[in-house]
Amino acid sequence: MSQNESQNTITLADLLNNLELGGGSVITSITELEPAAGPHASVAPAKFVDDKKSVFAYETRYIVEEIQNPEDSEDAEKVVKGKSQKVVLIDSKQSELNRAEAAIEQGRQYGDEAAVKIPRAVVTYQTENGPVEYTDMELSHRVFDGHFRAGTIDGEHVTENEQYRALRNCTPADMSALLNTAPAALLFGAWDSTRKSNQVRLRSALVGEIIGVLADQEPGAEHRQARRGGARVDAVAASVKLAPKDMESLVNDQEAELSPKNIKKNRDAIATAFKAKNKDTAHVSASGIGLGSIPPSLEETGAVACRRIIRSWVLSLATLRQLRFGQDETKNVAARALLAALGLNAIARAERELYIRANCDLIESAAPVVTLDQRFGEKKPFAPLTVEHTDQLLLEAIENAKKVGVADWNGQTFNVEGNSIIIKNATAEDAE
């Protein structure tokens, strides 16, 4: 029997017992990862924009070294004390939540029994290619997102809709409307930020991240990462330069598919060529519409070497205990357990696929370590979370919530028609 098989799985009773006042604070899932190609391989961390430059996010963290038998090791003190080390953020808290939300939505699309029962809100845009749906699992502010607030229901502005007003009017004393219409807000967090008063503010009860401990811990090591090269090879011609009239013709032909910024850049170049004194030699590079090669160049940031990579999830039971759904504590506990089961399912689904980004292929070095806080320093270990087990746990929590009368999840959808003005003016250009 393996270690995982000998461990207990989390039960609904575990959730119900620990979501009463005074229960455990958190359930965690911690996994050691490594580069798929081996320890010699570099990984591409998350990129952020700082004054128009791409940068990595470096931090100092307290890292405890892994030692198999600390009692027999001369380095046993490290297990207790650890040490501060430079780390890089490989996947941020927001990104990890997005992956969890996407995994749940994928389960719904595949018809998974538990996933299809989760209530959701959907805004639908009518496009030239047919209707396109966006759910509260995808949009940043969940059901309070601007895409929902700008929409309509049966021709009526959504902010005047009675059901939507009930969502916006939820208070800490009773979150029942959200629980039965758009529960993603209660688990993943939401903020009705543009409302002038009575804003619903919910912190996320689930957080996750992936960090890498830098292999080089010398001063300034965080700035010595590898740089990645980029290039484009045109099999037809290394360079395509056209007379302004010919370039204008190509741009006109593709205008409907080009971004406004791209169109302006190309038309400016065309105008400059038309004004040139030597009309015979004035030509415009067609690289702006994807023709010709781009010589290899080094980007500012590429990848880093990591001696250790750690993925962590924290489901805050303490946060869920702040939520109430009326005066009946039995109903409150059942509703919190329902959200906790959804959170564990989200973790299991997100952990199942280690897809991060290009040049960041990772594998699990060991099984996730799942732990329930039991207060006073006591912890209870559990087997790693699986989709199969957490699906069953979620179904049991759904049935229990229905039995006590606090929630009835049957896949109900709150449908909003998206505002045509928004979709007509949407582009793929970078945000300003």
What does this protein structure show overall?
This protein is α+β, with helices and mostly antiparallel strands. Among the domains are: 93-211 and 312-424, no CATH class; 231-298, no CATH class. Helix content is 31%, strand content 24%. Strands 1, 4, 5, 12, 17, 18, 19 and 20 form an 8-stranded antiparallel β-sheet that branches. A 3-stranded mixed β-sheet has the order 7-6-21. A hairpin with a 2-residue loop joins strand 2 and strand 3. Helix 4 (93-109) crosses helix 12 and helix 9 (244-254) runs antiparallel to helix 10. It is globular and about 85 Å long.
Describe the structure in brief:
This protein has helices at 3-6, 12-18, 76-81, 93-109, 146-149, 162-168, 176-181, 184-188, 244-254, 260-275, 317-320, 329-352, 387-404, 420-424, and strands at residues 26-35, 48-50, 53-55, 58-63, 83-91, 120-127, 130-135, 152-153, 156-157, 190-191, 201-202, 206-214, 229-232, 241-242, 284-285, 294-298, 306-316, 362-364, 369-373, 379-382, 413-417. It is an alpha+beta fold.
